[in-house]
Amino acid sequence: MVQYGKDRGFLAYHEAGIFLPRHWAKLMARYPGGIPLDRKPPFDPAERGIRVLIRGEAGYPEGFDDLRHLDPREGPPVLLQMRGELFPGEKYVTLVGARRSDPSTLERARRWARRLAEEGVVVVSGLARGVDGACHRGALEGGGRTVALLGSGLGCIYPPEHEELAEAIAQRGALLSEFPYGMKPRPFHFPFRNRLLAAFSPLTVVVQAGAQSGALHTAEYAQSLGRGVAALPGPVEDPLYEGSNRLLQEGAHPVTSVEDILFLWRLYAGGRERD
């Protein structure tokens, strides 16, 4: 019988992907005293460089606790799997944007992330194609650290062409997932993952977003959590900026430079430079 909470047997089965996070409520309702499992996990995650971060224990991202104020189905993850390191007192900014962006926007995202890294900011993004990938690469080029929150398990990097980038992030930052190790991405994972992108940092910056961009979900979560939301303005006739411009109409801060981003970070982080 595997009990809930901090039971290490429960964690081992989740680490192995024997059951999935979306099954928790159903399983808990069926087995109120605990989940009977009689299979052993097929591998030891520690052997693959994976750490398990448990809510309420040291190392768990403190911003995620604010998710308890949302719908219970969107609350803080019970546990996360991580490759890499998170350090206390780091300055985080979430940079997100469209998967399909124009070359000038991708270059701007890369340049902004590089400059932020040079200023000691850890860039947080989602490892997706387009703006996310450009932001991670820029942070690494700037000699800094970057964090990627995945919509798949750590053993199934998506998109596959970002496997090398993911490895670099694990060496100079962190890869985090609430999904079991070998779980492939599914469309509904990404909007669900976006709440973590919003909660991780005091400020979310939308570099570019069309009307249906997933980056808008991240911005909505950030607003719900009382985080700062900023966006780069774009031409009103450009559909690639339709979502960004709508955010600005709804009260997001306009940003056109790294200096703007740093100013807003200080504002929403409480103006305290952390040690």
What would your notes on this structure say?
This protein is α/β, with parallel strands linked by helices and 275 residues long. The protein has two domains: 1-42, no CATH class; 91-268, 3-Layer(aba) Sandwich (Rossmann fold). It is built from nine helices and nine strands. It has helices at 8-16, 24-30, 103-118, 131-141, 163-171, 189-200, 215-224, 242-249, 258-268; strands at 51-54, 79-84, 91-97, 121-125, 146-149, 173-177, 203-208, 228-231, 253-254. Strands 1-2-6-5-4-3-7-8-9 form a nine-stranded mixed beta sheet, sandwiched between helices. The longest helix is centred in the middle third of the chain and has 16 residues, at 103-118. Mean pLDDT is 84; it is low at 1-13, 15-27, 34-41 and 271-275.
* Count of the separate structural domains: 2
Question: Count of DSSP helices?
Answer: 9
Radius of gyration: 19 Å
Q: Based on the coordinates given, report the CATH architecture of the largest domain.
A: 3-Layer(aba) Sandwich
Mean pLDDT score, rounded? 84
Largest sheet: 9 strands, mixed
| CATH C-level label of the largest domain | Alpha Beta
CATH topology descriptor of the largest domain: Rossmann fold
Q: What structural category characterises the helix and strand content? A: alpha/beta
What are the main properties of this structure?
single chain; 275 residues; alpha/beta; Rossmann fold; 2 domains; 9-stranded mixed β-sheet; 9 helices; disordered N terminus; disordered C terminus
